[in-house]
Amino acid sequence: MAPAQQNVEVCDEGGAQINMRPKPNGIKDSSDIKLCENNNPVLQEDSASEKFNSDKDFDISKYEAMEFSARIRWPDLIVQLFLHVVTMYGLLLICTNSVKFYTTLFVFATIYTSGFGVTAGVHRLWSHRAYKAQTPLRVLLAFLFTITGQRDIYTWALDHRVHHKYSETVADPHDVRRGFWFAHVGWLVLTPHPAVENRRAALRRTSLDLLADPVVRIQKRFFIPLFALLNVILPIWIPVYCWDESLINSFVVSFVTRFTLNLNIAFSVNSFAHLWGNRPYDRFIKPSENKLVSIAALGEGWHNYHHVFPWDYRTSELGRFNISTNFIDAFAKIGWAYDLKAATSSMIINRALRSGDGTLEEEPDPNFKTT
Ligand SMILES: [Zn+2]
Ligand SMILES: [Zn+2]
């Protein structure tokens, strides 16, 4: 589906805010490479309001040099172990046709439908402000996101802003330099590095835009009852009531397995897409273009592009499989999504020529002048 061009705000080099961010360890040459960071207005404010925050007083090298050993958060570990062990049993039930066909259909339909609440909602809309959305769409996205059970919008978006701003440093909540398992799920069951806590507190003071949205405020305030209703009670009740599934099967498959698969799809962006794949736009960072993650995560695996142009609502170049972009385009057609931000092709090629690994699939225009 073509993007709704009439609503796309094309950003060029002149219009884009490019800031230097703390240089991750291991980068040898930063003199001619500008690492683009999230240029959403909140983070611009953040760098401007140093009296509260921040980069000026925050010396990441001290935190990098600090001795730190994380402790296990046992309640979180036990919850994750429970979810994953029960999910193994749930997958066995599905693979051996031990649950009703409609239950399996319902589980996978819910996983992918609710996934838009993560991709188009808490990620592209609330974390990055890559487009704007009318209230009905924001309510729909908050509803879908709550079904996935991935904490409240405010907490998720705040952590994601910290991740982008301090990617691959000790202040990154799921710093992939600590290995696959830490980036995948370990960060949720271990105590955070003091640098993460420091930056979370700093961004909390400047991410006021999130709480200015009544949809975010309401979802945050009523998160526990909404979580219980949308992630637990309704998914268990619907298969039992509508097609006579057994209560235990519905609990195992429609609640635990669905919830855990949804979590792992989101986790895979932090782990797989930060480790494996090519880096056509910036070879100096770990986020990578990962097709399999993109298929599983509704288009969120084009992660090298996304970390270079985090404000682009497409999170990838046009032509890549990205069903969440199609979702936003469809709502742009009826006016519920608007002010869609996107990078120009010249900006993309420019950046790829400057810092990419040479795997950009498009042939650069020979007449195109780099800056
Ligand atoms: Zn990332
Ligand atoms: Zn992001």
From TrEMBL:
Compartments it resides in: Membrane
A GO molecular-function descriptor: stearoyl-CoA 9-desaturase activity
InterPro entries according to UniProt: Acyl-CoA_DS, FA_desaturase_dom
GO CC annotation terms, alphabetical: endoplasmic reticulum membrane
Cofactors required: Fe(2+)
Membrane topology: Multi-pass membrane protein
GO biological process, alphabetically ordered: unsaturated fatty acid biosynthetic process
Alphabetically ordered keywords of this record: Fatty acid biosynthesis, Fatty acid metabolism, Iron, Lipid biosynthesis, Lipid metabolism, Membrane, Oxidoreductase, Transmembrane, Transmembrane helix
Residues annotated as transmembrane: 77-99, 105-126, 222-241, 247-269
Domain Fatty acid desaturase: 106-312
Major localization listed first in the record, in broad terms: membrane
Pfam families per record: FA_desaturase (PF00487)
Family the entry assigns: Belongs to the fatty acid desaturase type 1 family.
Recorded domain comment: The histidine box domains are involved in binding the catalytic metal ions.
Protein name per UniProt: Fatty acid desaturase domain-containing protein
Organism phylogeny: Eukaryota, Metazoa, Ecdysozoa, Arthropoda, Hexapoda
